[in-house]
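Data card: per-record layout.
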Amino acid sequence: MIDKAFGIGHKAEYFPRTAWHINGCRHVNASLEPDTIMLYGGNVYILDAKYYKYGITGNPRDLPESASINKQITYGEYVAYEERFRKRHGNHMKVYNAFLMPFDSLKSGCPDHPEMMKIGEAVSSWKDNSEAYQNVQGILMDVRTLMSTGVRQEMKEIKKLAELIESGWPG
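The structure for this 171-residue chain is written out next.
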């Protein structure tokens, strides 16, 4: 549903690949594949749906761990430094990362029952976290709302998610 609501059709070219070179032969590995690539305002948003229970428990132990965070940063770094994406999206393109996790806005305890809510960001100790993609945003998405918009893309929902991901980022 995330891909249908927010994604693009030709996302495979945004996936980083690796290969082994052995005895003059190249053996290509499967690529790393985030769930969704969203484009908005000349920027690239790498979205990964995580079915963690943080939206129910509020417990930080129920959030994505280091392996997922590091993989997400790798996705972002690949897109940020690949020249063909700069040519396509412009030299001022920013790359953002976000984990999208389910929650029930009616049970959230928030008085206005937001459809999307930023809960924080994940960073690594091996980067200086100065680039937007190095700060993986944690976004809760109301499941009912996603189900109602998940059958089609709505630019107002894409804009809302993009602005939520960017909010608080100084760049």
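Known properties of this structure: The mean pLDDT is 86. Helices lie at 2-6, 54-57, 66-81, 83-89, 143-149, 155-166.

See the next section for split statistics.
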